Description:
Helix content is 34%, strand content 16%. By secondary structure, the chain is of the alpha+beta class. The strands form 2 sheets. Strands 1, 2, 5, 6, 7, 8, 9, 10, 11, 12 and 13 form an 11-stranded mixed β-sheet that branches. The two termini are 40 Å apart.
Amino acid sequence: MVAICSLSLAAQEPATVDSTAKDSGFVFTTVDSVAITSIKDQHRSGTCWAFSTIGFIESELLRMGKGVYDLSEMFVVSKTMMDRAEYCVRMYGDAKWAAGGSAYDVIYCMKNYGLVPQSAMYGMRYGITPADTLPVHGELVAVARGFLEGLYKQKTLTPVWKEAFQSIYDTYLGKCPETFEYEGKTYTPQSFVQSLGLNADDYVSITSYTHHPFYTRFALEVPDNWRMDQMYNVPMEDMMRIIDNAIANGYTMAWGADVSENGFTRKGIGVVPDEDNGADLTGSDMAKWLNMSTDKKKEKLTEKPLPEKTITQEMRQIAFDTWGTTDDHGLQIFGTAKDQNGKKYYMVKNSWGAVKSNYKGIWYISEAFMQYKTNDILVHKNAIPKDIRKKLGL
C-alpha cells in the first residue's frame, strides 16, 4: 500500500504561478514554499492534531532526503488516547478526556512509542461500513467516554481496565503493531523511527503571550495541552521571525490555531478584516452593511482582499484571556505567497481533503491572521534564528 517514492504519494511542490480560484476575488502568487506530502482528509474525526503533525514529520523526512513516506496518524491517535485516558483516571475524572490533542503528542509518541507507516496498522477501520475509507469517530469517542465515565463511579479499579480501554481503540482503528514488515525489513515502531534518523529532541514548541515572561518556558493553558508541554515564550515579532526564517531555510511547522474567526473560510482563506468598521465601507454601502446578516457579512469580508486590523501583542493577549482565541485546529505551515496587491500570506496545508477549498486543500492565511490567531507552532530548533535561539538557551 505504501512505498517510498510511490507515484501516488509524490511530494507536492505547490505551484509557483498565479493561483486564481473560481468564485474568488483573490489571486495568489507563490513566493517561497517547502515540499509537503499529499493532502489528507481527517473527515469526521477530531484528529487534526495528528494529521497536521504527521504531515510536518513527513515534510521533515523530505527535507532530510529520506524520500516520501505515508505515516499512520491512527497509530499516534491510539497511543495518545490511551495515555490521556490513564491521566484522566489518575485524576479521578477531574481532568478532561477528549479526542483532541496537540502537536507535542505526536512528538511524545515518536519518542516513547515510535511511528509506523500507514500500511502497518493491521485491521485499520475507518467509517460506519466496511466500504468507508475516511475516519468517522463519533461512535468511537462516545464509547470511550462512556467507558471512562463508568470507571469514575467505581470505588476501586481492577488492573485490567487499561487493557479493556485499549481494546476499544483496537476494534475501531486496528491494533498497533509490535513488529511489522516494510520494504523487505522487519521493524518495531521505535526501530522504524531510528531508521528514519528522526530525533524527537530536535523539535520545540513556540508561543507568544504576556501572562508569562518572554524567553522562558511554560505550559500553555489550553485543554489539549494536557501533557503540559513546556513551550518557549517569545514576543510576537520573534514568533513571526521564526516562521519566516523556517520557511526561508526549507523547514515547515505544525501550527496550532484558532479558526473560529469570521475571516477563516471553508474556501481556503484566513484574514482579519476590519470588521468593526465594515471593512472601510462608507455611505450607502455602510447602510447596507449594517443591515446584513452575520453570514452575509462573513461572505463579504472574505470575498476579496480588504484592509485588515493591525495586530498587537496586547490584542493577542486579550483574545486569549477572554476565550476569543481557543485551540481549535491543527494545520501545517509550509510557504509564503502574495495576493494581487502584493500583500503577504502564508501557505498552509489543511487536513480537510483536497477538494474542500478553492485551492485543493491549501489555505492562504494573512500575516495579520497568523499574528493574531496562532496559539503555538512546533518547529525544528535549527529553524529558529540564531539570536533568538541564544536567548532561549537552545
